Amino acid sequence: MEVTRPTRKLTAMAAHEAVRAAVSRAEELGVAVNVSIVDAGGREIAFLRGDGAFLPSGQIARDKAYTAVGFGMPTGDFYRALSGKPDVLSGITGQPHVAAFPGGLPIRSDGELIGGIGVSGASAEQDDICAKAGLAAIGLVTGPEQEQG
């Protein structure tokens, strides 16, 4: 029986590059966002507040990143999975730091969950676009094809 296994970890430099790319994409869209990246344990590695981004959306970005890594799925998908179960949705989203709306994505490398990115401050669709731009900037993608790294 194996008692340990090697794991991949997101580097601080990659996390900082991703938050910069996400904020840059937001600027191209004409919006201001906050971006957070957490490691596989939900601890923040990088955070960037875009010029003019709403102060409260900083915590929402952190919550989206935490939720994406904690449940291993995009936060928009998480909401859709629970939307037909109002009691479960209410109970889970009532927990601290859980955000069930788009803008949070898990980060995977070679199939391993290594972190999460959360973006908040614009529309749900724009937050999602910016999160994807952050991952693309470090050579990672979202969805089933998320096997690069």
UniProtKB/TrEMBL annotation:
InterPro entries: GlcG_carb_metab_protein, PduO/GlcC-like, PduO/GlcC-like_sf. Pfam families: HbpS-like. It comes from Celeribacter neptunius. It comes from the Bacteria. PANTHER family: SLR1406 PROTEIN (PTHR34309:SF10). This is Uncharacterized conserved protein GlcG, DUF336 family.
